[in-house]
Amino acid sequence: MNVSFLGISIVILLLCIPAYIIFTYKLNLLNKFAMSVVKMFAYMVLTGVFLYYISLWNSVLINILWMIFMAVISAIISVSKARLSMNKLFFPSFVGALSVIVIMGLAILFAVFSFKNMFDARYMIPVAGFLAGSMIESNSKSLETYYAGLKNHNAIYYYLLGNGATHGQAVNYFVKRALEKNMIPMLGKMAYILLGVTPMVLWSMILSGMGVADAVFMQILMLSAMLAAAPVSLLITLAVARVYSFDAYGQLKNMDKTA
Amino acid sequence: MLEIKNGILSGVEYPATLADINFSVDEGELFCIYGTQDDYVTALIRSMLGLQPLKSGYITVDGDVIDTSSAAYFRNMFSYVPHDLDMPWDKITDVLLSPFEKKNKITKKMLKAELDRFGIDAALLDSDYSKLQKHIAQLILIIVAVLSDRPYLIIDKLYSEIPASLLMPYLKDYATEKHSVVIVSDDEDIRRMCNKSLILDINV
Questions:
Q1: 8 Å CB contact between B155 and B187
Q2: Which domain CATH number covers B71?
Q3: Model ipTM?
Q4: Which of A172, A212, B102, B196 has fewest C-beta within 10 Å?
């Protein structure tokens, strides 16, 4: 497939359609539309540049550095969207994201491409990106829920601790709520992903020479990984975050963004 | 024996005129903390439970200091009944599923028998927790704490609707069975019925 002048013209034409509709009907969406188009181009150009060089070099070390970079980005966006303290939560969130990207990512690559090809940039980079991206929204919402619960509705926490429960037992209710918040959006979006995204990905895979059965299997594998990634990452994040979130007496520290 | 020596609470504004906190609660005693300011009372209760440090002074249980390394161990000797009852339970009996270690397995049947002593309808155990009156919920938690049979019982700010004439004999009986009871209240009757008291009020 080559990018032709005609292809670029069609892209511009397609973007003109919603712009024309917004303009004609005087919808109050022009700024949002312009912003999202700019964001899309910036994101795609940057991703393209990165992917071009990473594929060109195709070095295992650089690919692993890419995985780490993805985990850093995922952690920064998750904590920032949750409006929590970056100082206290960046590292736990990074560890959670990195563990999932590395362990789950390598497991997927091994399952599909075997040990021989699993470190190839063509496979490793999209899998890392896909896993990192799938965690961000769920983790930010669940971190927000967890710390807001502990800050504002902590009667059960102190009741259990005061009666001799361990820290893990005392925060269990808040972990449960955070996990619900973590998994519900993902389960809710599944229908959209299956109808809106999967056909595009399947088509791309088949177009690049993969058999239909392999492409479908890969899709199932990726969707399963996506469902597992966010809750596993959250549990690891919360386990690591304990040291940074609670003092020696078990009291929650100030976790606000400004702290 | 539970003892506080030269205690100054942390996390609360502390007027220089207020004396250090000093008291001890022996086995078989009922001790009343008579206070009206919730933040002071909460700070004192949390300090006693090893959930927050004192600014200065120390708290001991049978001569051993409660600090970060020993607090978790000592909390297994305490039963704690809070004043803030904003719990995520469906029914009050969910408390029986709480994960903290209990020497005695408390059953609904045991709770019903105890509620009879207070003349409270046991059907309340099956009602929605959110609809349960706070003083009834606190009373049920006191009963659960008594049935837990731990050496120290700490009750944070008692709801005034709980009649002292019913509760205090119950707690006295419990204290005589080699237990120590600390109860926070702003009720003069409760204070009078205790063996000792501490006035924790900057306005007094």
A1: no
A2: 3.40.50.300
A3: 0.92
A4: A212
